[in-house]
Design goal:
The chain is mainly α. The protein has one domain. It contains six helices and no strands. Helix 4 runs antiparallel to helix 5.
């Protein structure tokens, strides 16, 4: 049931991101709902769940996005896996850490995508990155609260 809940949430996040009204975009940039949800799933569930969420969410985002397919898929998987490894090592049990995580993951994902598929215009790319950081940080508490609620609803089984 947990996998279905996360899959549906990622599907909704990607759809919501693509359907974001043009009038609410800031310089043509919408919040990266899928990326922050992947990071929050990784933080609340661990590296395997984070990487799986990154694979599925990255596939969805790359399929409907305008960026490179491989770059988007790779950046989302790396973010999910890295955030899963950060689980328990940072003060990740507080909702106020979500904007900080959002800022970091948007920067890391953007640089991964920049290395894999370089942008020909650096200044507009940096401006778009700044807008994406601010926008994603603003919506990040919602994604974190969802991921934490699902994690508490279906806790991980302990191995005996």
């Amino acid at each position: 049931m947990l996998i279905i809940a996360h899959a549906v949430a990622l599907l909704v996040a990607v759809a919501f991101e693509r359907a974001w009204p043009p009038g609410l975009r800031w310089g043509g940039v919408a919040p990266d709902f899928a990326l922050i949800l992947i990071a929050c799933i990784g933080i609340t569930r661990g590296p395997i769940a984070g990487c799986a969420a990154g694979l599925f969410g990255g596939f969805l985002a790359a399929t409907v996005g305008e960026g490179g397919f491989g770059a988007t898929l790779m950046s989302h998987m790396v973010i999910g896996f890295a955030c899963g490894h950060a689980r328990g090592r940072v003060f990740a049990d507080h909702v106020l850490v979500a904007p900080v995580i959002a800022t970091l993951v948007v920067i890391v994902a953007a640089f991964i995508e920049l290395v894999i598929s370089p942008s020909s215009h650096l200044v507009p790319w940096l401006a778009g990155l700044g807008r994406s950081i601010v926008f994603t940080a603003l919506v990040s508490p919602i994604a974190y609260l969802y991921a934490r609620a699902v994690s508490r609803r279906w806790p991980q089984r302990t191995e005996t």
